[in-house]
Amino acid sequence: MDDSYYLQQCLKLIEDKLPWGKCSTWTNQDFEILSEKISDSSGIFISYQTLRRLFGKVRTSDKYKPQLETKNALAIFLGYPSWRKFIEAHSPLTQTSSAAPEPEPPPVALPGEPVVHTVKKPPFLSRKVMYGFVFLSILTLAGMYYLYARFTKPSAKKVFLSGKYLKGFAPLTSVFNYDVSGIESDSVYINFGGDFENILLPKDKKTITVSYTKPGLYEIRIFAGGKTIAFERAHIMSRDWEGTVYHENGYYYLKDKNKLIHDGRLHLVPGEAEKGGIDIYMPHQKRSMVEYNHIQDYKVDGDNFSLETRIKNSPEEGGVYCYNSYIRVRGWNYGSRVSFTQPGCNSEAFVQFGEVLVDGKYTDLSSLGQDLSTWRVVKLVVKHKRAQVYIDNRPIFTTTYQNNIGPIKGITYRFKGYGSVDYLKLYNEKDELVYQDTFDQALPAPRSVGQ
Which alpha helices (DSSP H) does 264-382 contain, by range? Predict the structure, then answer.
C-alpha cells in the first residue's frame, strides 16, 4: 500500500490529539507550537512551514513526499518508536484478523454432582524437539533485536560537527565540517534550522555548506534514529530592520528599510505587499502576516532586561478580524515573547519566557486580549528570571522560569494586519539604554550594536 495512506492516517491522529479543531482552521502560531512539541518529544526539528505543507495549508506538488526522518518525528510524537512501527501498527493486515472460534461452554453439573473439567492433552513432543524449538525462538528474537537496534538507533560512536562563518550579516554562507562515518544507521540527516528541509547526510563526505539569505537564529542539528546527535548555532544578523510578508504559499521579503518606514513609524508602505502579489487587506488573506526583524548582538542578558515599545494594529490601516500583535525578544537559548489579540479572541494569545510557554487555548489569557486600534505602550521586564508584561504601565501577566534565556540576539514584531511600531527602547540589567529607534527618516539610522 502506498506510503501516503499511512501519512494521512498519521496526520489525522495528530489532528485528533490536539484540541485545536480541524487543521484547516489552524494558524501559523498553531504550527509553530506543534513544531516545538514535536521537537521536544522526538529531538527532531520540523519547521512550521514543512508542517503547513504536510497538513495541506500550502499548495505543493502531488509528488511531494516527506523524508523518513520527518515521518519518524511524527510517529514518535504519537508515541511510536519509529515510522516503521507506526506502519506496522496501522497496517490493515494487523488491524483485521479472522474471528477466533468461540470457547466451548463450561459443563453444567446436575444438583448434587461435582463439576468435572476435562483437559485435552497436547500431542506428545520429544525433549529434543522442544529444546530445538526454544533455541530457534531465542535465536530469532536476538536477530530481531539486532535489526531493530541496527536500523533505529544511532551508534554510540563519536560524531563530529564544527561550523565556520556562523556569525555575520545576511546573505552568509556557513561551512560545516562533519564526520558521521561511525554511525551505523544509513539514515543520518542534517537540518540547518528555520524553514530548511532535512537533508540526507552523505557518509563519504566531510563538508557541507548552506547559504542563509534571511537574518535569524538558526539551530543546526544532525540526527539519526529519531535523536539529535550533534548541534550547532548560527547567528545571521541584519544591518537594520528588515521585513517579511508571510502568506499561505510562501513569503515576500523586504530588505530596504526605507520601504518599511512610513509617517515616523515602522509600518509597511502601502502597495509594497501588493508588489509581491499579496493583499492582506482582503478577508481571504486573513492568514497573511507582516513581520519586522532586527537581528544583532545587543550584549544584553536575556534574564535581566527591559523592553519598552509603542504599537498599534488599527482596522482602518489593514487590521483583520481576530488580529494579533506579537513581540519577541530572541535569546541565544530561549525567547521572551507575547502575542496580544483582539478582545474576545484571546484563545489565540500566548506568552513565553524561557522554557515556560502559556497557551491561550489551555489557559485564561483574557488579559492579553487588548484593543490596539490606538497606540498602546507595552513593556517586557525580566529580572532574575521573573518576567512581567505591562500595557500602559499596568502589569497584566507575571511568571517565573528556570532555564537561562542567554544573551539577546534579535527583536521581532509580527502582526496579523498592517501593524505599526512607534518606538523601541531596550535596557540592560543596570537599566542603561542599550538600543533605541524612533523610526524617524529625518534622523540617521540607529547605531549598529555589538560590532
Answer: 272-275
